[in-house]
């Protein structure tokens, strides 16, 4: 009997998401999500992933029929850099689980074979397989959330690089004397344009006297400001928030100009929580990109929001397992 489903696990700096995806492709038949709580450590996360996975398996089998043997395995997407051959997290600036054997631990808990790939690779693959990038030969995916990641697909193949660390877009230096990044470098794109750093830039501006409704929204407790707070203030017409989002878009465009000049992609897909502000990001991002990249490459490249909100990572993680282990 051929397997019918694969579990997809998306490990993010904010949330852990588990879903069941058909081997043939399609929206998850069941999905569960919990906060990551990275400070609790990786073993706690593995136990909760296993618990959510069992719930997803049970719900899928009750709704679709079949038995546990119909699950071929589990695909895992995790922030990196990763040692893909050994299934180990090398370092994770936003999690702190360095050196943890994530693939073998999840495989052992679920008693299923497992694959491991970078979370941004998985989200990119999900959008290529079933989302906005279907049918695109040359696709760049950009994940904008707790961190910033990237993935690149050329003719249906993920480009992982010599050690599996390709396309760490968030750690591209855009200001060599800039803000300190969680990775230890200065001036990384992530240090400006990730969700937590959009919030940090807002706090910095308020600390030096900028006027904004943000202070009132958090009752003076600036530590409560998040990227979502900035977005909500933007919708209320807040000038500081509008400037921060515009600057974020310009910085993203600067980083993506390097990508467009290097790879000449057909499409760039933006996914992740920060893309909630896509209607305010896309135009200044495109303008910044156009000002810095070759026009022939810019003209050939669409920039679009993803079409699989909250599930691209799960779908892609499952899809990577299907390609690597089932197909």
Identify the notable features of this structure and list them briefly:
Nucleotidyltransferase, domain 5; 41% helix; alpha/beta; globular; 327 residues; 2 domains; 5-stranded mixed beta sheet
Question: How does this structure look, described?
Answer:
A hairpin with a 3-residue loop joins strand 8 and strand 9. Helices cover 41% and strands 19% of the residues. It contains eleven helices and twelve strands. The chain is globular and about 60 Å long. The protein folds into two domains: 140 residues, Nucleotidyltransferase, domain 5, CATH 3.30.420.40; 172 residues, Nucleotidyltransferase, domain 5 (2-Layer Sandwich), CATH 3.30.420. It is an alpha/beta fold.
Taking Cα atoms only, what radius of gyration do you get, to the nearest Å? 20 Å
Low-confidence stretches: none
Secondary structure category: alpha/beta
How many strands appear in the DSSP assignment? 12
Task: Report helical residue fraction.
Answer: 40-55%
Task: Give a nutshell description of this structure.
By secondary structure, the protein is α/β, with parallel strands linked by helices. It is 41% helix and 19% strand.
Topology:
Layout: E1 5-11, E2 15-22, E3 30-35, H1 42-64, E4 71-78, E5 82-83, E6 88-89, H2 102-110, E7 114-118, H3 119-130, E8 138-144, E9 148-154, E10 157-158, H4 190-193, H5 195-207, H6 214-217, H7 227-235, H8 239-263, E11 267-271, H9 278-292, H10 295-299, E12 302-305, H11 312-326
Parallel strand pairs: 1-4, 4-7, 8-11, 11-12
Antiparallel strand pairs: 1-2, 2-3, 5-6, 8-9, 9-10
Helix pairs in contact: 1-2, 3-11, 5-7, 5-8, 7-8, 8-9
